[in-house]
Amino acid sequence: MLPVEIGNRKWEIGNLLLPSLLSLPLGVAAAVMARYAVLLPWLCRNRMDADKAFERAFAEAGIPGLVGSFALVCWAGAAVLLAASLLGLVRRPWALGLLRKAYVGAYAVALVYVYVVWQTTAAARVASTSPEGYAPSAMAVAGWRWEQLWPVLCALLALATLHVTSLRRMAVAAYSGTAPAEPSTSLGPGPLLGDRIVENLRTHGPDPRYRKSLLTSAAAHVAVIVVPLLLEAYGCVRDYLVPFGSGRPAIAVVQTVQRRPKKKKRFVLNPNSAIYFHVPDLDDSDVLRRVDEDTQLTYAADPGSVNAKLGAGGGKTGGWPEGTGREPIRFIRIEYPGDQWDDGMDARSRADLNFLQEFRRVTGFRVAARSESHPIRFLKKYTRGYAPPFIYMTGTGGINVSAYDMAVLREYLLEGGMLFADASSAQWDRNFRTFAKALFPDKRLVPIADDDPIFQMPYIFPNGAPPLWHHGGMHAMGIKHKGRWVVFYHPGDINDAWKSGHSGLSPELAKGAFQMGINIIYYAFTHYLEATRKYRK
């Protein structure tokens, strides 16, 4: 009798737990659908407001209406799944039937979601096509789709497993309140559909050898062909082409503005007296005078002095003789695990886009109309000699970078690239100094001299980088390799001055921050082309 008692005990436990196992995941799915119903329309509107190209492409493809309709489908699906999740806890046969229908409804919502993703990414490809006609590759679009679909596919796999479980004999027994009967012989009803599916998967069907061979072949094809293609699609990048041409660094006109304190009157009682009655104060100190001169805001560059002739080669067309194309100037930011790695780059602040627009205004070069960012590891995907001459990095908290990404970044910098780092908080300043030491253990961050070439062309900054919020000090710092700055670090949150509204900064200081960024781009382009000349022969 002992085996029978154990069997009955297992059935009683299953009878209690199985309804919860089949019902509660539907409640989670309902919450996810409700979140999608709220989030997707907002993301669509936000993307259209941030980029005119997406606004046109989405409007022509009818994406706003499609996303709005899908939001209604999500609300309806969430209501059905929530009701099924609650009623499924009732151990009655009709409740089991409701659960099975809810699983089918979840499949239907997932299919609609796949269609929405397919149409939206197709419109995004049109919006991302450059003015020269360069569209993202089919593999890149496949990567976008996979990024949006894989969480839903995983959820569908879990729901399908529960659906099969609901079709098994033990589920029927749990909801009917009777112990599961043994499968009938040929004289009576056979196993239920769920039991047949499980048994087929366990035994590999009537021909196990053929089934195992088929699965092995399919797995090999996926491993060799599909997985590499998906990985490549997920990490596609477009080579960075520096503008081709011939220009020259335009030296800016600088007006030095210094405060001149009024001299105090001195009263002399008797000029022939041996006693000197005047007591000197701090204003008479020569040291104070020198400090006052060194801390004055002495840059006031004329924007008209920088024009479309910016570049190298001494020509008049603008650009660099070793440039490789006519594509727009791009501002590429680095994604990494850390707080607010994209600080200031949202659709409202637009720090990177505002800077690019200012760069276009004062130089005449075309610039990218969209923000661009990618993880550090993607730097290896660029063709040598065609990587971004500089990459931008900011944040407010920790900097969590893997050893592999650190090696990729170090290789990129040593081969000609430049890291433009910008502290958005005092905490990030401390973390970046530690990060820089780990990046180059044999080098260190050093202050950049005020007369360094990076402060001379095309704008002159007699006192070095413009002082701003001083999260990490008053002076720009850097790391040098073979006579070239591979790291330029501004500790004063320069991107705050680029934001819409300039974060309350005066127009003069904001203009200086934009001009400092232009100097950094000019320096990075010129030195990158020199350092990577061998790769473009």
Short account of what is shown:
With 537 residues, the chain is of the alpha/beta class.
Main sheet attributes: strand count, strand direction, barrel closure: 5 strands, mixed
Instruction: Give Rg in angstroms.
Output: 33 Å
- Number of E-type strands: 7
Helix-strand makeup class? alpha/beta
Percentage of β-strand residues: 5-15%
The residue ranges in which pLDDT falls below 50 over 5 or more consecutive positions are: 251-260, 291-308
Q: Cα distance, first to last residue?
A: 86 Å
Q: Which geometry do the CA atoms define?
A: elongated
The overall pLDDT average reads 81
The number of helical segments is 14
Strand order of the largest sheet: 3-4-7-6-5
**Helix/strand order:** HHHHHHHHHEHEEHEHEEEHH
What is the CATH C level class of the largest domain, in words? Alpha Beta
